[in-house]
Request: fold
Amino acid sequence: KIELQHGAHRTGKRTDADMQTWRTYGLGQFIHWGAYSLLGGKYNGEYYNGAAEWIRVWNKVPNAVYDNLYKQFNPQQYNPTQWAAMAKQMGVKYLTFTTKHHDGFCLWPSKTTSYTIAGTPYKKDIIKPLVEAYTKAGIDVYLYFSVMDWSHPDWRYDLKTREDTIAFDRFKKFTKDQLTELLTLYPETKGLWFDGTWDNSWKKSGAFTDSLEQYLKALRPGLIIGSRLRADDLGNRHNDANGLLMGDYEQGWERKIPKTYADVHGNDWDCVMTIPENGWGYQEKWLGHWKTSNELIEMLAQCVSLGGNLVVNFGPKGDGSFRPEEMTAAKDIGAWMKINSNAIYNCEYAGWEKQDWGYYTKRTGENKYYMIVFNVPVSGSLKVQPPRNWTVTKATLLGDATKNISLEKIDYGGSFIHLPKGFSTGKPFVIELETQKATGTGNEQKAKT
Ligand SMILES: Cc1ccc([C@@H]2N[C@@H](C)[C@@H](O)[C@H]2O)cc1
Reply:
């Protein structure tokens, strides 16, 4: 064990009510919106082949051009009530929204810089009406904040000289002031989602990241902050030098999903996912493959089956409207959740042996299990093999309990669920299992020799 002043201060999961709620979400929405949304990954008729919100680093866009884009930001179609309604219909339980991305443009009227929404033709605070609309719709709001800020003269990638350190100390104060504004202006928000914390300057600021987190949590008791904020005494991020997670949940799953429960290391976690291949801000042209609604539903099932949440990203245009592909995804996922959300909300890792037909989830606190089925075997029968002395007592198809699906015990353990001949819904479906754990002497089930 390595002695650390600024490593993890807690082992194991947070057990308070705010974190219990976070665990129940299942499905979230990310929204990336800012000056980059005005370009959509394109400049002078050419497309940037990287992530659209990173277009400022493309040498074809002069910094002076990019840094003045905000003077055109005037989203007359911005309608946070409509955004919240779309998210509500989709079945989303929490939103993560970009208050400031790496470019430094603030979507709230910050007093710490002139590079804010107040300096745009739109003038008005974007965040307040958004927080109100989503909170009113019953969706919790989390604020994305990029520590790295390309617009700030005191930002440093590394601390090589005394001058660097003096400048970066000013930058740390600026960062703390901005975060204080956000927590003070938007008291209904539940957490902060940090990004832009991978550079050496931040890795060398472990003590500051620790005191900043403690300051923010004192300012807002219950605040939820992932593992992407902190660095320990030695510059380790996410896990400290002793392998302990620094944060309320693991925030490393960006555009990737754990393969097995072992990969989760007993942490809470969520996966943030783009619908197109890469790129979070609005991109006029989606290159390559983008996820179909069924693919997104399968990612959702995968995440919840391994004890996490899936957060699907949307990148509205500069005018505040969404792409048709995103609206379709929201509608399709919403239609599926309307029937099957019992397998997603308030659910956790089931711990049953995974079968080829899909994923198990378990309702927290109950002996209720769910089968989220993507692949029906050629036999039309789904094998369920719970741990020994668990038996399945009832199987019900969500959305159509009349469909008679029969249950047959298997002599070598578990059950078959026989689907009606020619059964197909054309999309993933869910079977709810009521189960019982056999009590008694336990020798009812002869161990096979
Ligand atoms: C290498 C890399 C750095 C930053 C990112 C940012 N994190 C995502 C959540 C987006 O904000 C993206 O710009 C993505 C990849």
